[in-house]
Design brief:
heterodimer; A: 329 residues; mainly alpha; ABC transporter involved in vitamin B12 uptake, BtuC; 14 helices; globular; B: 252 residues; alpha/beta; Rossmann fold; 6-stranded mixed beta sheet; 4-stranded antiparallel beta sheet; 12 strands; 28% strand
């Protein structure tokens, strides 16, 4: 199992790196071999700026957002013991979307990093509410209900923001941001992805025994020494921070958190802890591929990343639901 | 040895176990029997420290249960809940290996394989649990329990989904574990099997302990009539023969 997990993770990591490298040559401005040599030897040149200042941060953000969503999805599925769970179930993504919408309406969208900071702030507030709740009621059904409640509230507040939006231009700007993109992302955005993944590296190993033993239910896990409250809290912190950061960096990117763990399971990994890192690596590859597709498609300027991942992910979700329904029948 | 003193358990506003005092001796198989809602599951969960609402004293080998850390408890006792859910489609051996907390890698798998052999599933080790029958899955979970090598095993209705031969085989396995110096507490619905295999019977009714002791003593005519609404007689080999023709009115 461990060998399988490591070889799968290795394969996905190499795929991600190869894709990231390959996508450095895809963009609006075609670059020749000499241009790339200039970009490497003179990073301050125009070609250097295109490669190091635009394309590489974009690729890193695409991979990082996918990785955060993949890890968050696998953690939520393991914690809730539900293959249909995904990071958005906690409502933190909606909170981040609300934060971004408010920032755009208030006109601070042009201030560098202001939208991301606002999205992050509201998502952290929602995470704090979740954590306070879990510390008292570590029940998974209650957690799902609270997540639905937070999501609905943030959705309603977002609708209110749209309603009170001062101009159609602002509304379009909010919609565009919410539909997800990694276009024109900076190294600061890439740093947010690194921060999120660093949090995951610190917290995920603490879920090892808990997620595995939860396979047999809470009572068995508890009788085997698992502190359910502790595991739930760590799982919720991990998933909510990753989901919030991913929305802060790239807007709403649908279905990656749901689909990445299923992709990994389809390759033979079943251990709910063992799927977490491979799911992150698979998520990174998925978002890089979707972003690459957007860049090479003729109407590339019009299709948003979140729309494309949802268009690909929704049929997959329907297939998963169909398979689950068949197994329950 | 487990000492329980003045145990009360409330579920919401209802008291499901009331003022129960008992001692489960080491090296014996204790069967808890009683009609539905008698408090068997609640008692087992309380013994395993899974019910924070339980009040009273529970001591394991003289140590207060609440003073033990979760890990210390887990080393001392293992619990098989009534619910048999397995969330992910792991291989049978991987499920059993979940019970080997203190072993790693190869040792864990080797130990898990031995427990699968005890449960007659050595050829199913690499089979995914979702492909197994309900009875086979139940035996995988029993193997997981055995793999813990705990001093105390608490089993809630372990015979559910097992065929008659495996019901007897499972009780024989746990009887032999008791003979090795472990304490086995098992809740059962089959009074006949409980009478045959248990060293001590604990009869619960409406949350109260109404009888305990060796099966012939615990299952007196009065207890059979008042608690189970049946009559029966003991034949050779603790074989309880229930008389279906002589069912009195409840409470008679």
């Amino acid at each position: 199992m461990r060998v399988k997990s490591l070889s799968l993770a290795g394969g996905l990591l190499i795929s991600g790196l190869v894709l990231m490298g390959a996508l450095l040559i895809v963009g609006d401005v075609p670059l020749s071999g000499a241009d790339y040599i200039e970009a490497i030897t003179h990073p301050q040149s125009l070609n250097g700026e295109i490669v190091w200042g635009i394309r590489l941060p974009r690729n890193l953000c695409a991979w990082g957002v996918g990785a955060m969503l993949g890890v968050a999805g696998a953690v939520m599925q393991g914690l809730l013991r539900n293959p249909l769970a995904e990071p958005g179930i906690l409502g933190v993504s909606s909170g981040a979307g609300l934060g971004a919408s408010v920032a755009i309406v208030l006109g601070v969208g042009l201030v560098p990093f202001a939208v991301e900071a606002s999205a992050l702030l509201v998502s952290l507030m929602m995470s704090a509410v979740l954590m306070a709740f879990v510390a008292r009621f570590p029940d998974r059904q209650a957690l799902i209900l609270l997540g639905v409640g937070i999501s609905s509230l943030c959705g309603a507040l977002m609708a209110l923001v749209f309603n009170l939006s001062p101009s159609p231009v602002t509304t379009t700007e909010i919609l565009g941001w919410l539909m997800g993109s990694v276009e024109n992302r900076s190294w600061q955005d890439a740093a947010l992805c690194v921060a999120g993944l660093a949090v995951a590296v610190g917290l995920v190993p603490r879920l090892r025994a808990g997620l595995r033993l939860l396979t047999l239910g809470e009572e068995t896990a508890q009788s085997m020494g698992v502190n359910i409250r502790h595991v739930t809290l760590i799982g919720v912190i991990t998933a909510s921070v990753l989901a919030g950061l991913s929305v802060a960096v790239a807007g709403i990117i649908g279905f990656v958190g749901l689909a990445a763990p299923h992709f990994v399971r389809a390759l033979g990994l079943r251990d709910p802890y063992g799927v977490i890192w491979p799911s992150g690596l698979a998520g990174g590859v998925m978002v890089l591929m979707a972003d690459g597709l957007i860049r090479v498609m003729p109407a590339s300027g019009d299709i948003r990343l979140g729309v494309l991942t949802s268009l690909i992910g929704a049929p997959l979700f329907a297939l998963i639901a169909y398979k689950s329904a068949k197994s329950w029948a | 040895m487990i000492d329980i003193h003045n145990l009360d358990i409330d579920m919401g506003r209802a008291r499901v176990v009331s003022n129960l005092t008992a001692r489960f001796e080491t090296g014996r198989l204790h069967a808890i029997i009683g009609p539905n809602g008698a408090g068997k599951t609640s008692l087992l969960k309380a013994v395993c420290g899974l019910l924070p609402s339980a009040t009273g004293a529970i001591r394991l080998d003289g140590h207060d249960l609440t003073a033990l850390s979760l890990r210390e408890r887990a080393r001392l006792m293992a619990y098989l809940p009534q619910e048999r859910a397995i969330a992910w489609d792991l291989k049978a051996i991987e499920v059993v290996a979940l019970g080997c907390a203190d072993l790693s890698g190869e040792d864990s798998l080797k130990h898990a394989q031995q427990q699968l052999e005890v449960m007659g599933l050595s050829d199913k080790a690499e089979t995914s649990v979702f492909s197994l029958s309900g009875g086979q899955r139940a035996r995988v979970l029993l193997a997981r329990l055995l793999a813990t090598e705990a001093k105390i095993y608490c089993l809630d209705e372990p015979l559910t989904a097992l065929d008659p031969a495996w019901q007897r085989r499972v009780l024989e396995v746990f009887k032999s574990r008791a003979a090795q110096g472990r304490t086995i507490i098992v809740s059962l619905h089959d009074i006949g099997l409980a009478a045959q295999f248990a060293d001590d019977l604990w009869v619960l009714d409406h949350g109260r302990l109404v009888a305990n002791g060796e099966p012939e003593a615990a299952l007196s005519d009065e207890v059979l009539r008042q608690v189970f609404n049946i009559t029966g007689t003991f034949a050779e080999g603790r074989n309880l023969r229930i008389d279906p023709q002589a069912l009195p009115e409840h409470g008679a």
